[in-house]
Write a structure and sequence with these properties.
This protein is mainly beta. It has 2 helices and 11 strands, in the order H-E-E-E-E-E-H-E-E-E-E-E-E. Helices cover 8% and strands 35% of the residues. The strands form 2 sheets. The protein has a 6-stranded antiparallel beta sheet, with no helix packed on it.
Length: 153
C-alpha cells in the first residue's frame, strides 16, 4: 500500500490549489488530492523555521498564501499512516498531514479515470478496483455511511 500511494503521487507537480468546503490539490496527470476535513500544513518560512496552519474545510476556508505557494511544487513523499491518515511532503518544502476521522472519509485521491483510493471512516483505507469505481461503494466526497458529509445531513 505504501509503495502504491508513492507511485501515484510522488513526482507530480501541483497545478492548482482551491478551497471552499474542501481543499483540492490538483496535480499534473491529472490527479486530485481532496481533503474534506481538518488538516495541517507546515510551511517553511523566512521568519520562523516552520509555520503550521490548522485548517477545517467543513467551516469553509480560503487557501492561505502558504497553501497557494504549493502551485509549482513537486510531491516528494507520500504515505498513508498506520491509522489511515495521509501525509504529503513537497521537495521544495512544506508538509500536508490529514488525520483519519471516526465518522467520515477525510481524504481521497482521484484521477481522470475516477477514484484511486480513499481514507474512509474509522481510519480504513480502500483502493479502487481497476475500473476506477469508488471502493466498495464508498462516497469519496467525505460523506459517512448515512450520506451526511462534513456539513451535516
Amino acid at each position: 500500500m505504501q509503495n502504491t500511494i508513492t507511485e501515484v503521487l510522488a513526482g507530480r507537480t501541483v497545478e492548482a490549489v482551491s478551497g471552499g468546503d474542501r481543499l483540492d490539490l490538483r496535480l499534473d496527470g491529472p490527479v486530485t488530492v481532496r481533503v474534506v476535513h481538518e488538516f495541517r500544513f507546515a510551511a517553511p518560512s523566512f521568519t520562523t523555521p516552520e509555520e503550521v496552519g490548522h485548517f477545517f474545510p467543513a467551516l469553509t476556508f480560503r487557501p492561505t498564501p502558504a497553501l497557494l505557494a504549493l502551485v509549482g511544487r513537486t510531491v516528494g513523499t507520500a504515505r498513508i499512516t498506520l491509522a489511515g491518515g495521509l501525509e504529503l511532503g513537497f521537495t521544495e518544502g512544506g508538509e500536508l498531514s490529514v488525520p483519519p476521522h471516526a465518522v467520515l472519509a477525510p481524504w481521497s485521491v482521484l484521477s481522470a479515470e475516477g477514484a484511486v483510493c480513499a481514507g474512509l471512516a474509522g481510519g480504513e483505507v480502500q483502493w479502487a478496483p481497476p475500473d476506477g469505481a469508488p471502493p466498495d461503494g464508498a462516497r469519496l466526497d467525505g460523506a459517512g455511511p448515512g450520506g451526511a458529509g462534513p456539513g451535516g445531513a
